[in-house]
Amino acid sequence: MTNVDSEDPATEVTGVAGTAAAAPVAEVPAPIRPDGLRRALPWAVGLLALAAGFGLQTQLYTGQERTVTTVFMFVGLAAAWNLLGGYTGYASFGQVGFFGLGGYATVVVMVHAHLSFWLALPVAAVVAGGFAALVGWPLLRLRGHYFAVATLGVAEGLREVMTNLPRLTGGGAGITIPTVGPEAPTRWLGNDGFYVLFLLLAAFVVATAGIVASTPAGYALRAIHQDEEAAAAMGINTTVAKTLVFAGSAALTGMIGAAYAFQQVTIYPERLFDVDITVLMVVMVVLGGSGTILGPVLGAIAVAYASEWLRQHFTAGHTFVLGALIILAVILLPQGFTNYVRDATKSRRFSLLENVRRYRL
Amino acid sequence: MSPPLLEARSLSRRFGGLLAVAGVDLELHPGRLLGLIGPNGAGKSTLINLLTGHTRPTAGRVLVDGRDMTGARPWRIAHAGVGRTFQIVKPFRGMTVADNVTVAVLFGPGRVRGNRRLGAARRTALDVLDRVGLAERADASPAELSVADARRLELAKALALRPRILLLDEVLAGLRPTEIEAALRLIDELRGAGLALLMVEHVVQAIAAVSDEVLVLHHGEALTRGPAAQVLADERVIEAYLGARYAAKNRSRS
Amino acid sequence: MTQLVQAGLYGLLQGCMLGLIAVGFSLVWGVMNVVNLAHGAFVVVGAYVAFELHDLFGLDPFLGSVPAALALFVFGYLTQRYMINLVVNAPIFITLLLTFGLQLLLVNGLILVFTADYRSVPTRYAADSLVLPGDVRLPLGRLIAALIAVGLTVALGYLMRRTRTGLAILATGMDRGAARLMGIRARHVYALTFGIAAALAGGAGAAVGAVSTFSPADAGRFTLFSFVAAVLGGLGNTSGALLGGLVLGLVEGIGGQLLPGTLVNALAFAVLVVVLAIRPQGIAGRAFYASRVEA
User: pLDDT per residue over C22-51, tens digit each?
Assistant: First the structure.
């Protein structure tokens, strides 16, 4: 018999199993909930990271602080995407739609209703999540490419709609949120303030993902990912599960969008619904390792930094180089860094060309 | 005989121009096993999909324990006590064997009885694995299992739902004779425990050995039904499986 | 009323070009299950090829569509053979990311070389119009482009159904394993398919250059329109994609008259989402490879 301790075994929040269908199947999947102390460890590490994040703030110049703030934003976005795309297997290419929706909800609350940003934040979550639940009803019936394309269509459509409601959103010319003086419902938080806000948001998203992954819900999501029909035959209400993840992921993304809108002060539909944001999210998760908690975090940090570094050193062609890097990374490391490390240490095979051989025609 | 746990009335399914299942009636009673045979393409798997909610019937009704479940989604039917195996096994490949079964324990009807906590669920899963003989492979990956063990896993996943009705879709295909015997013993135990069983099979001796009644499907229709020996000797059945020429030869020989 | 008819006809002509662009996209998706996010970029590259040839040699852009198509065929073949083939068996969003990276590469490469300015390839005749009864005008340039589009689609259909190469492509699309067992070199066939798709896009791009302005930023729009048209027509169904393009063009043309601003694009996406939700196999009937729809 295998070891089953009488305590409630816990999920390892970091490199868990069940990452299969997003990426190559691990050679031998680890049980989803290994026993013992390993349960507390990831949470301890997370708290440490959070503390480090706060501490780091005192060490940074303004410019660097802004960069790190952007990294935090992407950590949150990537982790939220991962819940839907990595765990449940529904790769949405329209995530930026919820980002923008949250941003514009903030606009409505702060500019038109003159209410505080702290009210706008939950409103953004509700609006984004509610919209997702609504469109999820037809969209979640689709799989694979169809789902990806449909969500992309929704995001693009949202952008067009927002561009064409100038009274509400300022249209293509943009709209400015009042952040100073008596007009402002909430004063601009300042670089320091936004650093903390995005750090907390990122921590919240990652923690939420960690909790979901370690509960029976996590089993359900993985099951849906690996075989939706079998999951349904085993009593999982796949419709409700998918809709909840879709809406939840959207709500989290919407909140981050709200914070971004407030931070940017003047926002345009082009910026807030930029398809590149979605793709960056996906790249981060894929490269970091989808279906894990640590993966999106590492991926976000790595890609965001790479992007910033490129922007500073190749001002003209940085996107070009980014494109090349994405291609290389996707060919050599499709399962993502965390999964690669885990598989390689187990099987002692470190060659990146393995991946190529595995997936090539 | 007690009232049927699962009943199909004039069940039909049309795919465009093809009538895959045509007006089939059947009843499953506790402690009895109904064998379902028929040549390939006769509609057996479609019938199971109709009974379990994976496919909506275009006509007819499905009743579970007297309640109309026609067109209900698969999870509702699972919660009503119907378990099934898939002809081509569908394990969750990224999870261990034990975790595969744990999913069923967590989300099947048994969960209201206190299996919501992962620890308890996992323990129950291990018990189920023990019952089907897979306890030693609890931490293995489904990809490593032999055909027989893969079938056992498939069965374990269905049993973890604590079903009162079990639909088996060609669980014996590809098994060696000793494995078939072991499987049949297990199925017999389940029948003895009071489950209502439906078994789709091609292995004729197996059907003959365990069925209380056999239903023959041909071109989507119920060709005939009755005790195994009688059905298997029926000319129409022979003709359906082996063709009209063989049937004629058989006739002229006897 | 005349305005609506005018808009409608204009939309149909535009739709033919969109259809041609979508045909290649649909073919690649249907045969290889690859969604090429860089498809629009191929179109723009074709436009620039025609632009440069006109600039250097005064070559008429419609004639320039031939070298554009050839250049893109080679590029497409090599890209598929030595890049996309490497991830064909990976989960779908890997190929999506790969082609997106390719798009970034191409679009930004074009910006680096040509800047983001809008260009067009002027011809003496393209702006002239054929005037029909009711004072409806058919711009000559677009008419030629539309005729080329229809002609190429028909030619492709012939290629697919009547030549060995075409049959090999179809077979590989339906069952790669079986095709290989029969001696078909799948790597080559895939590369060929992608090359053909790129060639069609490039040729269409040259025509685009002749009839309107273009810039690297248009790449994304072309790709998205290809999605819509391809889905409308059913994946892998080449004539369906042309039909989808026509419908899209019509919707855009008439919608542009009735709706404010760029809302008409939102309409296109709404159409896409609605079609995917109700009838994923497209309005033109069964997709060729309906059995290959992701399950």
Answer: 999 999 988 888 889 999 999 999 999 999
Could you report the predicted ipTM of this complex, rounded to two decimals? 0.86
B165-169 vs B196-200, strand pairing mode? parallel
Could you tell me the two tokens for C8? 């409608």
Tokens at B117, concatenated: 């906590």
- Contact: B79, A25; criterion CB under 8 Å: no
Q: Where in chain B is the domain with CATH 3.40.50.300?
A: 1-81+164-179+195-254
State the best of A330, A339, A353, A360 to mutate against chain C, taking most chain C CBs within 10 Å: A330
Contact across the interface for C276 and A149, Cβ inside 8 Å: yes
Q: Do A31 and B93 touch (CB under 8 A)?
A: no
CB distance from B108 to chain A under 8 Å?
A: yes
Contacts of C247 (CB under 8 A, 6+ apart): C15, C229, C232, C283
Place of tokens 């039917």: B77
Q: What is the pLDDT of residues A213-224, one digit of tens each?
A: 888 888 899 999
Domains of chain C: 2-117+131-292 (1.10.3470)
Q: How far apart are CA A246 and CA C291, in angstroms?
A: 27
Amino acid in the structure at residue A14: T
With respect to CATH, is domain B1-81+164-179+195-254 assigned 1.10.10.10? no
Q: Which residues of C touch A141 (CB under 8 A)?
A: 277
pTM (whole model) above 0.90: no
Interface mutation target, options A234, A237, A343, chain B, most CBs of B under 10 Å: A234
Contact C140, C130 (CB under 8 A): yes
Q: Are A355 and A339 in contact (CB under 8 A)?
A: no
